[in-house]
Each structure stands twice: as structure tokens, then as C-alpha cells.
Design goal:
The chain is mainly α. 61% of the residues lie in helices and 0% in strands.
């Protein structure tokens, strides 16, 4: 494997990759989506508690995240990235 590819993969897995990536490549917000109403009570609870981590975790369980953001797919694939990227979680929660 190419050295730079290997270093990039290591960086993405060990650090606050999304927080750092956003500083270089900020995403452009898009429209708001409709979401499943069945799990909405948890979302409201975490929103009212201002618990950004649990709010984003609960929203990631929906088929579609309520807002379009390039980093959502990464967070869905790597749940541990939520704890490593608090600025990204707060930025997403702020948009909610």
C-alpha cells in the first residue's frame, strides 16, 4: 500500500478526522428531510436535554438523516467516530 494512503487511513481512524476535514473542506448545507415519526420522542428528549451526542446517535438510526451532510455516511459506518469528532457532532446538532 502507498505510504500516503496508509497514513491517511491511520489518521482517519485515530483522530478527529471529520473535525479536521471540515476545516479544510467545509460542507454546504442542503435541504431538510422528512423523518420517521415513530422514534421522534427520543429525538425530542435528547434535543430538549441538549445532549448532542445522543441526539445525533438517535438520528443516525433513521433510514435518512433529517439534514443532508457529507459526513453522515462516515458516522453511520464508524460509530466510534462520534466520540472522536465532537465539533462535527455539535455542528450537526446545531443545524438540527
Amino acid at each position: 500500500m502507498n505510504l500516503w494512503t496508509q497514513l491517511s487511513i491511520q489518521y482517519a481512524n485515530q483522530r478527529n478526522y471529520l473535525d479536521e476535514l471540515f476545516k479544510v473542506y467545509p460542507t454546504i448545507p442542503d435541504g431538510i428531510r422528512d423523518i420517521n415519526k415513530d422514534n421522534w420522542n427520543f429525538v425530542e428528549q435528547y434535543f430538549n436535554e441538549k445532549n448532542n451526542t445522543k441526539l445525533i446517535q438517535s438520528l443516525l438510526n433513521f433510514e435518512l438523516f433529517p439534514i443532508k451532510d457529507s459526513y453522515i455516511a462516515y458516522l453511520k459506518r464508524d460509530k466510534s467516530a462520534i466520540k472522536r469528532n465532537p465539533e462535527t457532532i455539535n455542528r450537526l446538532a446545531g443545524r438540527i
